[in-house]
Amino acid sequence: MLRVAIDTPLRRLFDYRPPADIDPASLVPGKRVLVPFGRRQLVGVLIESASHSDVPAAKLKTALAIIDREPPLDAVTFDLVRFAADYYQHPPGEAFAAALPALLRAGRPLEAIETRWRLAALAESSPPGRLGPKQKAVLAALQGNESIGLDTLDALGGSAREAMRSLVARGYVESFELATPALTRAPAEAGTGPVLNADQERAVAAITAAAGTFAPFLLHGVTGSGKTEVYLRVIESVLARGEQALVLVPEIALTPQALERFSARFAVPLAVLHSGLSDSERLACWRAARSGDAPIVIGTRSAIFVPLTRPGVIVVDEEHDGSYKQQEGFRYSARDLALYRAKALSIPVVLGSATPALETLNNALAGRYRMLSLPTRTGSAGAPRLALVDLRMHEARHGIATPCVLSIERHLGAGGQVLLYLNRRGFAPALFCPGCGWAAPCSACDARMTVHLKSHRLICHHCGAEAPVPYACPRCATELKPVGQGTERIEDALDEFFPGVPVVRIDRDTVNGRGEIEAALARVHGGEARILVGTQMLTKGHDFPDVSLVVVLNADQGLFGTDFRASERLAQSIVQVAGRAGRASRPGEVLIQTACPEHPLLVRLLAGGYEAFAQGALEERAEARWPPFSHLAVLRAESADRAAAMSFLNAARGLALGLESRGVELLGPAPAAMERRAGRHRAQLLIEAGRRGTLKRVLDELMPLIEALPAGRRVRWSIDVDPLDVG
Ligand code: ADP
Ligand code: ZN
Ligand code: ZN
After folding, report:
1. Which parts of the chain register pLDDT below 50?
2. Share in percent of the chain as helix, strand, coil (round to 5)
3. What is the model's pLDDT at position 184?
4. Which residues have any ligand 1 atom within 6 Å of their CB?
5. Residues forming CATH 3.30.70.600 domain(s) in the chain
6. Domain 198-374 class, CATH top level
7. How distant, in Å, are the alpha carbons of 73, 98, 279, 355 from that of 102?
């Protein structure tokens, strides 16, 4: 009996009889199996062979074929996917589907083998007589080349494959299989790095000394302290031992510079896995990682599931970044799974950040991770100086307070570049009627439409709905006014304050995709742009050596968020964006605009930096029993019908109260902070436990019951273990 994981939303495996005449020794877990499923044929993953099935023998179907000669995932990675499906309460078939490249899910061979064609001896001795025009074209292509592949063949047009088949059948052409090279990128020459400072030396020594053992490290280094340099040296010694390094990064498209540093340092092929790859590029990279042809594998979240032959270290750069947690479907945390995988492999894992997640910091403080600190910046630049600008005392025209305008002028005058950070794109977050108080709402969400003046549209940032900008209030015909600031408006304001000074705006409206961000960054690095305005995108990993002033335009957005992580995120953004200032020799200055300068978070952050903030925030979390001092899962439901979502969650709550497993607290159900989005009412039930194991036991018992709830069929629901957002 075969137990197979199939890509369906059902939280179970499916039983099949093995294909006829199969050698039982070939039934190895992890291999792909072709199975009949309803009226379709699907590719599943063999999880185990079992001696009996609960499915009545008469109903049991027979698998059609075992696809692989060896399992695509190595044993540890296979186990990692199973663990993740189990831990995050996700259907195993979908978990494996997330782990395997699309082409393997579609049944493509695991081995990188390509079919090619060449002329057979017969074509020389007795040239073919009558041929159709397409056959002639194919033959001509073959005569001009030693061999041709499918690309060339298909370029000849529609019926070329058929023509080829008949030429093969007549013996003029023969086909053969060729192993394709995994990576085409030619290795560059190896570079050398700078001489390490004492802190870096210590960090590299500690990590390399832990080779071959499970050893989690938190590399806590301020921005520009040389963390990347530490990764590079650690990887150097990993490669010297003939092992592979897996490096997880938040978003490759946004940080082309980081990639360049890796390729400039090592004369080896890099397998770079990110969302911008085509399916076949992704498969090629994946194969190179699996075969060991690529000693260094760099990738975003899903790269945690890439198989490796001889892994030596896992690095998670910017480990605090929210993108490591998948927010829909299979809601795993690649950062947390990196620890599980490193443990299973007995290798070191390095979590690096200037602003560690409070969970990570707490693990380090509790001695579960070893803390390695890089407290100073490399080079001559000291730490940037932070100051608050009180918006109650200073007039802010177009969202920029007078002291900030004066500072910008001063820094520009001294030849520096200036960065303005505002995490809100568009022109203004609301279109308001001074006459009656009406504000343009999104018809599908409990939210206001954002004004985008350049494109003359109102856009909802929650559901994407668009509408033309109305000229007058629909209720009282008064002229409408955009209220508040977005990056687009700041760009306009700068033009007014500093006419002629070149500004580059970096947000999702101006840069989309890799080419555009590179072009925008080139204008900054080339010195052509003097002022940068941007959103969150600017806080991620970029190095702007000539930026000497950073202005955080609106700190208050994050001070009063509904989510318990709002203040942590705000502190991380401020520190990260501040770290962009004064990276080379220029001393940096950071101004933070706020209407609440006495807010304890800001006071702590300014007086003692991220560490002081984090200490205070951890105390608050402990008191309120939020993670990391408790463990959470959130059951979410949404429906066009408001009552349906709540009644499903109430039913789930009832089930949870009746469980044998105890030790969880239930909070809710309650409507989400923004209840209606894209026309659906959203609500959630929070499940909290003091221990991870307790939460797991309860969920294991609860999930099958919830799945069987009839009320669940009228709503869209999901379970999120270790959620990032509970607002
Ligand atoms: P982080 O990753 O912590 O932000 P980086 O590794 O990017 O820091 O280092 C910041 C800059 O300092 C880079 O330009 C890097 O090449 C340089 N750098 C790193 N380590 C040293 C060192 N020991 N001596 C001189 N320059 C260094
Ligand atoms: Zn009005
Ligand atoms: Zn909307």
Report:
1. 182, 184, 186
2. 35, 25, 40
3. 42
4. 194-197, 200, 221, 223-229, 378-379
5. 631-721
6. alpha beta
7. 14, 9, 6, 35
